[in-house]
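Late entry, written up from scratch paper. The run itself happened at the end of the previous shift, but nothing got recorded in the book at the time, so transcribing now.
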Amino acid sequence: MIEIRDLTKRYGGRVVLSIRELSLKPGRYVLRGPNGSGKTTLLRILAGLIKPSSGEVRVLGGDPYGEMRIKRLIAYVGHRTGLVEDLNGRENATLLLCGLLGCERLGPFMDMARRLNLEHILGRPVRTYSKGERTKLSVAIALASGREVLLLDEPFAPLDVPSRETLGDMLGTWEGKFVIITAHGEVPDIGGRTIELGRNPHRPYN
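Output as recorded:
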C-alpha cells in the first residue's frame, strides 16, 4: 500500500502540495492537474527524494525518505534522468542494474530496449542522445529493475508517436506493482485510475 495522511509541502511560505488522505493499492495511476498542482512534487516525495513539510507518507509500510530498504523498492525517472553522459546506453544500464540488483536484469533490459527501438543506439555515448532517447533508456532501465514501485514524471512528453504507443502498451500490461505517472495533455491509455491534483485538498482524486 501507499498511504498519505495530512501531507503538505511548502517552499518558502508557499504551499505547493496539500493532500489530506490518499490510499493506493498496487495498480496503474495517472497523476493529472494544472501546472503547479504538485504532480512532480508528489512523485519526488514518494521516491524519497524530498521530505514533506508535514504529514505522513508510507510506501510499502515504510518511510521512503528515511528508510533505505524502502528506497531500494522504488524506481524513479524524472525530467533529469541522472544518466552518465560519457557512458553509452549499455554501460549505463550495466552500472545501474548490475551494481544494485545483479546482472540477471540485463536480459529484461535488452528486451525493453528492443521494444522501445533503442538497440541501435546503445553503443553511443548518452551525451549524443535526444531527450526522447534519454527518457526511453531511463524507462527501460526502470522497467527492467523489477522494483515494486515505478514512478515516471511525464514519460510520454518527449517521445514520438510510435514510442508513445509502445510505452503505453508496456505500462498498460504491467501488473501486480505500482505504476504512477504524471501527465499533461493527452497520453496513451494505460488503464487504471486517474488522480486529479489541485482541485480539492481534502480528497484530491477521483
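The first helix runs from residue 39 to 46.
(Scratch paper discarded after transcription.)
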